[in-house]
Amino acid sequence: MKVTIELPDDLYRGLKIQAAAEGRKIKDVVAEALREKLMLPSDSTTESARSFSESQAPYFAYKVSRALPHLSKEERKRRALSIIGKFSSGLPDIAQNHDDYLAEAYLS
User: Fold this and answer.
1) Is the pTM of this model over 0.70?
2) Contact 89/3 with Cβ under 8 angstroms?
3) Which residues contact 52 (CB under 8 A, 6 or more apart)?
């Protein structure tokens, strides 16, 4: 079924980056995300059409929770927050332009 929705710019950029990184169509990434959010069974045709390994895909929250199912949400959050400020990219505008840098890294 065709549906038209409006998305904030940053969400659409993230969606494009995710799809490009996984070599998938945007509609398939959206369908997967909605299935996971709504806890619906996955479509076998979408699953079999994947041409990437999970280790190559960006690790978003739902993937991390799958990788660390033994940790509570609070513990995953604590661990994530504990690394803030421990690494430096050397880029002064990384906070403002992180989507552009991420897309550049995936496409190079």
Assistant:
1) no
2) no
3) 21, 22, 23, 24
Q: Which tokens is 17 given?
A: 């980056």
Least Cα distance to 64 among 81, 51, 76, 50 occurs for 76
User: What single DSSP character describes residue 4?
Assistant: -
Under DSSP, the state recorded for 86 is S
For the chain, how big is the Rg over CA atoms in Å?
16
pLDDT at 62: 54
51 — pLDDT class (breaks 50, 70, 90): very low
Pairwise pLDDT comparison (88 vs 48), residue with the higher score? 88
Q: What is the pLDDT of residue 43?
A: 62
Q: What is the 3-state secondary structure (H, E, C) of 21-64?
A: HHCCCHHHHHHHHHHHHHCCCCCHHHHHCCCCCHHHCCCCHHHH
Task: Specify whether the CB–CB gap between 56 and 24 falls below 8 A.
Answer: no
Contact (CB, 8 A) for 22 and 29: yes
